[in-house]
Amino acid sequence: MREKILTFIEKNSRIDLKELSIILGVDEIAVANELAEMEKENIICGYHTLIDWDKTTVDKVTALIEVRVTPQRGQGFDNIAERIYNYSEVTSVYLISGGYDLMVTLEGKSLRDISQFVSDKLSTLDTVLSTATHFILKKYKDHGTIMDKKNKDERMLVSP
């Protein structure tokens, strides 16, 4: 039942408990208890709302920063990742494969804010060897949701 609950709430965290229990064919209390248990076990770590900030008046810039670091003896990448994710500007940190070690997602009010964060805070960390900054210019799909759905032209084709 856990996997089914997780599959449904990953796409729609606002689904009604009663509706979810009907879909799963189980008692509503059982679903509520299972959700509470998964929250307690940190399987469910939070609930988020996906917002298209481009359609608001809020100035927000998102950047992906690739970071190459020197892992610390006996601790690997965990300590440096923790130092980075504790900055309020940082929205996510991932250990990745390839030419870089970490992928850091940042949000700021401007390109300058992001650049200043990278140069003043991120690049100055003693274990950081290099960074590469990529600014998000447009989001087409985010968390499985298409951000800019095209309206289909439903007019009838008229031939002369």
TrEMBL record:
SUPFAM superfamilies for this protein: Dimeric alpha+beta barrel, Winged helix' DNA-binding domain
GO MF: sequence-specific DNA binding
All copies of domain Transcription regulator AsnC/Lrp ligand binding, residue ranges: 65-138
InterPro entries to which the protein is assigned, alphabetical: Dimeric_a/b-barrel (IPR011008), Tscrpt_reg_AsnC-like (IPR019888), Tscrpt_reg_AsnC/Lrp_C (IPR019887), WH-like_DNA-bd_sf (IPR036388), WH_DNA-bd_sf (IPR036390)
PANTHER family registered for this protein in UniProt: LEUCINE-RESPONSIVE REGULATORY PROTEIN, TRANSCRIPTIONAL REGULATOR AZLB
Pfam families noted in UniProt: AsnC_trans_reg
Protein name per Swiss-Prot or TrEMBL: Lrp/AsnC family transcriptional regulator
Gene Ontology CC entries for this record: cytosol
Gene Ontology BP terms: response to amino acid
